[in-house]
Structure formats: C-alpha cells, structure tokens
Amino acid sequence: METIGFIGTGHLGYPIAENLVKAGYTVKIYNRTREKALPLELLGAELVDSPEAAAVKGGVVLSLVADDKAVEAISTDALLQALGSGGIHVSMSTVSPDTSRALAARHRRQGVEFVTAPVFARPEAAAARVGNAVISGEAAAKDRIKPLLEAGFAKNIFDLGVDAGSANVLKLMGNFMIGAAIELMAEAFALAEKSHMDPRVAYEMLTTTLFPGPVFRNYGAMILDRKFTGSPSFSAALGLKDMDLVLQTARSTYTPMPMANLVQARLTSILAKDIHDADWTALAMGALEDAGLNSVPE
After folding, report:
1. Is-above-0.85 flag for pTM?
2. Ranges for the 3-hydroxyisobutyrate dehydrogenase-like NAD-binding domain (predicted)?
3. Which residues, in sequence order, are CB contacts of 271 under 8 Å at separation 6+?
C-alpha cells in the first residue's frame, strides 16, 4: 500500500489517521504539537517535523487543520515541491470556499491537484468509519483518494464536481443546519419545561417519529443532559468560526440567513462569558437562560 502524508491530528484528525494506520497504509504524520501524535507512532506511523516532510513525490497528503490561516500556512511552496507533479493535497478542513478555490489554482500551477473533502462526523463517528465526506476537485484525483476517505472515516462519499469551493459550501450548509437544530431543540425543550411537562418524553416522541436521525438524537440528548462543557469534541470557538464563514459566504452571494445570525450571536455570548471547555452545543444555553431555566446540570 502506498505511503501517504497526514497533517493535523487534533480531535477529529487523530481517529482518521489512526484508522489509516490500522488499514495498513504507511502514514507520515506532521502535527504542530508533536506530543499529541506520539501514540500514533506506537501504532506504526512515522512522525515528521514539517508539512513537506510528510509528502512523497507524486503522492497524497491529507490535511485537517483548524481554519483558513492554518491550511494556507501548510500549503507552502516546499509542500507543493515535495508532492511534485501528480501529487494530491486533500484538504479536509472546514474553510472558506474562496480559500479553497485560491489554493486549488496555486496548487495546479505547480502540477499538484487540490481536492476538498471536508468531514461530516464527530470524532467517535470518524473512529467508527460511519462519517460522510463531500468532495470536489479534478475527477481522477477524486477517484484516487476515495479509498483513503473510506479507510479513514467515510461510510458515504458525495461528489460535488470540479469547483474546489463547492464541498466547502456544503460543509458550511451542514454545520449551519446543525447549529440551527441545536437552537430550535433548546427553544422547544424550554417550552416543554416551562409548560410543566417532561422534556424527555417529548424528546423520545419527536426524535423517533417526526425528527429521527443522529443530529436530533445526539444533540437533543446533550441538551437535555446539559452536557455543554468538558472535553468538547467540537468547541464553541470552532462553531463560531464556522458561523462566521457561513455569514461571510452568505454576504458574498446576497443570501439572507437570519437564523445563522442568531446562532452566531449565541456562540459569541458563550465565548464572551469565558465558559471554559464549551462544546458548541453550549449555544443552547442561550435559549434556556432566556426562558429563566437552569443551563447547568442539576
């Protein structure tokens, strides 16, 4: 099996890299904080000291980093030269569509293909390889990297064509809809509590009939349990970053998104209160507190 590079082993990148190692790939890993990747070395991965050292000529490098600045920072001339003609950089990060389009053009000038493949999965779903991938980029490059996505995290892969920004638009749409679902569930469960009914009965009825699916089941349970802080797998800060990108994209396309403004405001309020270790589910605290309800576990 071929040698691949992997850049960024955070909460989400770690289980994906681990799955690739377990699948038999030779994986060269760069992480800014080397210590966090040390357990992967024990599994057989090779740790390297720079993004370009993770690349092999004509090979594939997957990256999963925090934001636009981070993906731009690793996409250096040194990385592109290390990949060389026929190489592929797969960006799995949630970033601006325009950033991906600009990076795709820059990569192509040096003979390297840039494929966007943002991850739809929380870490536990990625570890179980039941996540979803959306991909965009050149057709042959996408065909080549699909087995890596399947081995790493993806149960399903959805192809959005050649525009490098399209997959990022869909990722932002998805994260916006999850954030909106958290807000609407918080408001609905607040109504149940204020009406002196058991919100857990409402949760069971609604999430097994009208609103089935992992978003309503998983996040609904977190809201009922007031599970808003402590080792977040997707932080409020990253959620705010994504809502900022949603609204940036909405402004550039003249798309009114008032619900996105509300979700952004909820997340801003969480961070303004300096709530430590907040998962982005903590945005539900706003609706609960507005209704005069306790937003911490009893």
Report:
1. yes
2. 165-283
3. 236, 237, 240, 278
Is 171 annotated as catalytic?
A: yes
Task: State the fold for domain 169-290.
Answer: N-(1-d-carboxylethyl)-l-norvaline Dehydrogenase; domain 2 (1.10.1040)
Return the C-alpha torsion angle 56, 164, 68, 6, nearest 10: -30
Q: Does residue 6 have a pLDDT over 80?
A: yes
CATH architecture of 3-163: 3-Layer(aba) Sandwich (3.40)
Active-site annotation holder among 28, 142, 171, 241: 171
pLDDT digits (tens, 9 = 90+) for 277-287: 999 999 999 99
Angle between helices 166-194 and 97-109 (to 10 degrees): 160
Give the model confidence (pLDDT) of 248-257 as tens digits: 999 999 999 9
pLDDT per position as a tens digit, 96-139:
999 999 999 999 999 999 999 999 998 999 999 999 999 999 99
